[in-house]
Amino acid sequence: MNKLAVIALLLAVFLTGCETIPTNDRGSSQQQEKVLTPNRGIDRLLLEAGRTVPPRSTELRLEAAELASQSGDPELLRRILSSIESPYATNSTTRDYSFLAAELALYDDDPRLAVKILDDRRMQDIRLETDTQISAGRLRAKAYKLGRSYLASARELIYINQLLPPEERQKNHEEIFSTLLMLDEETLQQQAEQSITSEIRGWLSLAALTRRYQNDPLRQLNALKKWKTAWPNHSAAIEVPASLQMLSKIVADRPEHIALLLPLKGSLGGIGRAIRDGYIAAHYQLTPDSSLKIYDSSQGDILETLANAINDGAEIIIGPLDREKVSLVARQTLSVPVIALNRTVEGEINPNLYQFGLAPEDESIQVADQLVREGHLSGLVIAPDTQWGDRNYQAFAERYTELGGVIVDTSRYANQRDYSDMVKSLLNVDSSEERAANLRRITGERFEFSARRRQDIDFVFLLANTIQARGIKPTLAFFYAEDIPVYATSHVHAASDSRVDALDLNGIRFCDIPWKLTAGDDVQQLINATWDSASSQLAPFYALGVDVHRLYPRLQQLKDYPNERVFGSTGMLTLDEDNVITRTLMWAQFQEGEVRAVPMIFGL
Predict the structure, then answer these.
(1) How many angstroms separate the CA atoms of 454 and 5, rounded?
(2) What are residue 51's phi and psi, to 5 degrees?
(3) Are 510 and 493 a contacting pair, CB within 8 Å?
(4) Which long-range contacts link 483-487 to residues 24+ away (Cβ below 8 Å)?
(5) What residue segments make up the domains of the chain, in order of their start?
(6) Residue 88 in contact with residue 94, Cβ under 8 Å?
(7) What is d(CA 252, CA 529) in angstroms, rounded to the nearest whole number?
(8) Which of 38, 113, 215, 341 makes the best surface tag, with the fewest CB within 10 Å?
(9) CATH 3.40.640.10 correct for 361-513+589-597
(10) End-to-end alpha-carbon separation of the chain, Å?
(11) Distance, CA of 345 to CA of 603 (rounded, Å)
């Protein structure tokens, strides 16, 4: 190699490491020096690697890759790993390369690849030290969890539990427990019966009873006591998950006097009555001994009604529903907790106000998250030219572009029966036909022609109700977009649709509340049998009434443990730092005129 070539090579290696990387204080003193000056550390390691041969050059590049990983720079990590010619030169380089490659796969949201790397035969042939076994187990657990394989993730954490120092086990217990709770009771119970190890069986049975009695803290507490008697030496009995440690306090502090402030007349009367009936059904099924008083918030001053409820002895207040009234309540000093059934207008917060509603924008945001998670980074949006369409489009666009997605084009529609012109234009089919017409005119010849749609999209987000969607979805297919996945919100799903009507919706994926997608528990079945409207457009509000009953005893638990969840009829519920209840919905798809839940896990 001549002198100029050597200089060019060294310059290229130097430039590879010239990214700005944030610092952290992790690692040994030697690593700490590199982290404190990451550019210089990576540059020096890569320059030195260029002067040596494997396995030394591999070791140096892996050290540089470790610095890039610690600094949170996946692109630099990717470039360094791709420059390694002999990653499996020794056992240590095989181990380090596999860990870093698995981390990169997780950066890329590819959990299958991460698991495949860690399960490679070359890794299995290496005898790993305890610390390395722990690292490998945590990486596998993270990969499985990212891929929604919750049981496999928990098994990895259970396996490494005894390898951990005692002071780290409580945190690991929390992760095991919260991961298992992502599974339903039936799955947990079945897996417990099939498990051949007592440690795993104990964890599964604990999670199963927690899910079984999730809506009844007293029965949950009694079941926990019985479990601890049956499993006195189990690791979870010795160090009980923190959320379960609160059960005694939850039961002791459960409010005995509850007030509902709901509109029972006027424009919001139908919704208010549905929420009331849903709440009452849960109340008399689960807490008949506590007192309940209902106030009509559709008339009079809301602050006066609130004061009356407090003077009457209410320990917790549920309501109001009207958004303006929620904002008014938020500006007051509240002497008791209030669970509002909507959100404030201007984002007002109050330490004693909890905001729990069914904002449709939440669904559009969840669609954006799902699209990016599945790798759909460019697409079209079809939305009605209404205020509802504006709100949902804006929420989707803000979230989707924030995550790196590109909205290629958008079309808005009014009340119409024929969507052909709109869809044809949006898919650029008319441009294809115009080019063919021009070519015929220029050449003067007739020829066979197949119109084409645009090729720069990989999804369509459809904001529509079920009637509108039945017109738009077949039109998309007619104009050559039958292979493009279509996503929607729950508004596309009317539970009353016949199978024939739903055939036109085939293929649409949408998010919706568990109430509309599952058989539900005894309370839901009772409500559906009692009120026909519980299976109609008012279904979400019956579900809201049930969920607020499930929610109010758990407020402090949700507040103290940010990872805690309530598995409700309106979604998986969590509490953020502003006391806003956020919902994670289920996913489903229309297939052959039926609605089927979309599987979200692998490797079970």
Answers:
(1) 46
(2) -95, -5
(3) yes
(4) 484/457, 484/458, 484/459, 484/460, 485/376, 485/458, 485/459, 485/460, 485/509, 486/459, 486/460, 486/461, 486/462, 487/367, 487/370, 487/371, 487/459, 487/460, 487/461, 487/462
(5) 3-208, 254-355+522-559, 361-513+589-597
(6) yes
(7) 33
(8) 113
(9) no
(10) 54
(11) 44
Helix (H, G, I), strand (E, B) or coil at 524: helix
> Do residues 278 and 323 touch, judged by C-beta distance below 8 A?
no
Instruction: Tell me the two tokens of residue 50.
Output: 């260029």
According to DSSP, residue 445 is labeled -
Alpha carbons 167 and 60: distance in angstroms, whole number: 34
Q: Residue 455: how many CB atoms within 10 A of its CB? A: 7
Q: What is the spatial distance between Cα 601 and Cα 589, in angstroms, rounded to a whole number?
A: 16
Q: What is the SS3 assignment for 399-459?
A: HHHHCCCEEEEEEEECCCCCCHHHHHHHCCHHHHHHHHHHHHHHHCCCCCCCCCCCCCCCC
How many residues comprise the chain? 604
The ranges of the chain with pLDDT < 70 are 1-40, 430-452, 496-497, 599-604
Q: 269 Cβ partners below 8 Å, 6+ apart?
A: 263, 298
426 neighbors 411 (Cβ within 8 angstroms) = yes
- H helices then E strands: how many in the chain? 30, 15
> Which pLDDT score is estimated for 599?
57
Residue type (1 letter), 222: N
Predicted local confidence at residue 8, as pLDDT: 41
User: Pick from 567, 604, 603, 518: which is nearest to 194 by CA?
Assistant: 604
CA-angle at 232, arms to 226 and 238, nearest 5°: 110
* Same fold: 254-355+522-559 with 361-513+589-597: yes
Q: What residues form DSSP beta bridges with 511?
A: 587
Token output for 333: 């000093």
Instruction: Provide the pLDDT for residue 591.
Output: 92
Is the backbone peptide bond immediately before 288 cis, with ω within 30 degrees of 0? Answer: no
Q: In Å, what is the CA distance from 483 to each residue of 235, 374, 449, 458, 596? A: 51, 16, 20, 9, 19
Sheet of strand 316-318: strand arrangement: 291-296, 257-262, 316-318, 338-340, 353-355
Please state whether the predicted TM-score (pTM) of the whole model is above 0.85: no
Q: Are strands 566-567 and 572-575 parallel, antiparallel or unpaired?
A: antiparallel
φ, ψ of residue 179 in degrees (nearest 5): -70, -45
Best CA proximity match to 380, nearest among 457, 277, 275: 457
Q: Determine the Cα–Cα distance for residues 327 and 16; give it in Å rounded to an integer.
A: 53
Per-residue confidence (pLDDT) for residue 39, from 0 to 100: 60
Indicate the fold that domain 254-355+522-559 takes in CATH.
Answer: Rossmann fold (3.40.50)
In 3D space, the residue among 250, 393, 257, 273 whose CA is nearest the CA of residue 341 turns out to be 273
* Residue 155: Cβ within 10 Å count: 24
At position 518, the amino acid (one-letter code) is T
Beta strands in 330-485 (DSSP E): 338-340, 353-355, 378-384, 406-413, 460-462
pLDDT value, residue 442: 55
Which residues, in sequence order, are bridge partners of residue 380?
409, 460
